[in-house]
User: Fold this.
Amino acid sequence: MRGGGLRAYAIAYLLFLYAPILLLPVFAFNSGTIIAFPLKGFTTEWFAQMWGNATLRRAMLNSLTIAVSSAVFATCLGLFAARASTRFAFPGKGPIMGLIMLPLVLPEIIVSISLLVVLLGIGIPLSVFTVILGHTLICMPYAVAILTTAFSSLDRSLEEAAQDLGETKLSAFRLVILPLVMPGIISAMLMSFTISLDEFIIAFFLAGNEPTLPTYIFSQLRFPKSIPMIMALGTVLVAMSILLLTVAEYFRRRGVARTGQKDSGGFI
Amino acid sequence: MTTPMTSYAPARDAEGRPTPIAGRKPMIQCRGVQKYYGDYHALRGIDLTIHEAEFFSLLGPSGCGKTTLLRTIAGFEDISSGVVLIDGKDMAGVPANARPTNMVFQSYAIFPHLTVADNVAFGLRRDPRSRAEKAAAVDEALGMVGLKGYGARAAHALSGGQRQRVALARALILKPKVLLLDEPLSALDRKMREQMQVELIKLQRQVGITFVLVTHDQEEALVMSDRIAVMFEGNIAQLATAEELYTRPASRRVADFIGVMNFMPARILGETATGVTVEAPGFGQVEIPAANVSHADPGDPAPSIGFRPEAVTLLAATAPATDRVTEGIIDEVVYYGDMSYYDVILDSPDTFGGQPHEIRISMRNVFGRELPDLGTRVRVGWSPGSLILFR
Assistant:
């Protein structure tokens, strides 16, 4: 059969990618304390233990605070950058946009250490706030990429038409441009939120004594008896990530359909 | 397009008869309008007056500045120097949203997130009228452009022709003093375009609003406009009615841009008060009336004569000679159904370098008359009054 080898390769590839993640819920509901087959029995004890853990709740609260704030900041800043890059010509536009997108490829560990050095140097104490700063930095490129797509699919005369029909520059933006890029804005916020929520390196360096979900999970890996609880937590996080990315993609596609444009691709 | 929107129609007198355009009050006045984009000189001193309820066209090849001029009238571009007056008021510093103009964009710029009715009602946001009155105005505007009952449709689901109509309704509902149209028909197919040309003329006569149309299609401009400004490189080359442009082009360049024109090299032999005597291949010596003397292209100042394909006729072999006759051989016949083009190589003496000179003749087709075969020897009838001298 032609293509048989390639098909087997594709299946093996997908298994390698996703089978480990599928194991998370399997062990999260397994009543044995050791992560090994054969499975013992069904339990929801690990989920109960998870909800009962005060440090974990604190980590969860921190992570949500950081993720929501970073998403809002990155999207707001991204809005300005995307609007400027699609609507106006100005000197140094290429290099500036390049620098904004750079954190996408910069090693996070380098970014984290540099930020740590700078923050300590100017005397800002490490806290949830410093993590928000770091996460805003790394979420910006994603937000800008999504928003640039949203802005560049807009016909420039839409804004002029609104002005021509009696609106000021500001109200034309609010009445025409904003509704049309709103799906992009929501999509950018959800994407940033997801990235921030499971980010480890920056959180590890910049959080000080505050736990976030990823750093908390890492710290618990040393204790074998808390591993099943981590499995339960992992299950919840994976489910949330998939849900959020699906919602983000839904809004992006709806935006494309609403403006009657052709889909030029997204992150999913 | 049935319901009349406005009772006032400044294009008509008290008895409802059309008034001459030249006698109407000026609606748009441009005085020495210049526009620079950096080093690029887009408008080089535009002077023109467009009258109330006039259908005016800005015609020219792409890059001639016609769209820039339209956008300066709309208020989307600042002018570098000069004055633009609309209805007597200086528009300096007046933004687009405060000008008594509305625009139909080339892309139509229909708001894709709104329904057709919300699109049309967009400009009424600051209108103090009640919701019901506004809805009635929207219905009326939609009826006027032939889209009655389309109000609830999603705008992005419309066809090109329908978008164009929505754009028209959205602009006209505000009863602007001037409607600006930026190549509004260029995205439509030929049949739709011709239909919309007629509808636009009717609409303009009905609402009595000044229309300013930008187009690169000379046929469209000739068909639709009361007057036309032909633009080249940021200047107005000629401002005239369609008929004047066609029969009395101000320069060889205008003549070449409007319709089909035959050009022949000419040699000037003498000049009197009544006209200029020239010699041209196949035409011999002829006196061109002074009224038919126009300007040569500054880039190629050699004198030439020009004439339209319908200004000369193919004579049957037995027909008596008309005013003047020259002879030639049919090189090509292009059949268009109602008429045909005949390319004829004229017999000419060696005084013009000896190379053959070909002219294009158009004639209406008559049922039962056979088209002449290629290579047929024909006689071409013409008169000095239909020749134009460019020098």
Residues 258 and 330 of chain B are 25 Å apart (CA to CA). The helical segments of chain B are 66-74, 116-121, 131-144, 160-172, 190-207, 218-224, 242-247, 252-257. Chain B touches chain A at residues 74, 76, 95-97, 101-103, 105-107, 109, 111-113, 122-123, 125-126, 156, 170-171, 174 (CB under 8 Å). The first helix of chain B runs from residue 66 to 74.
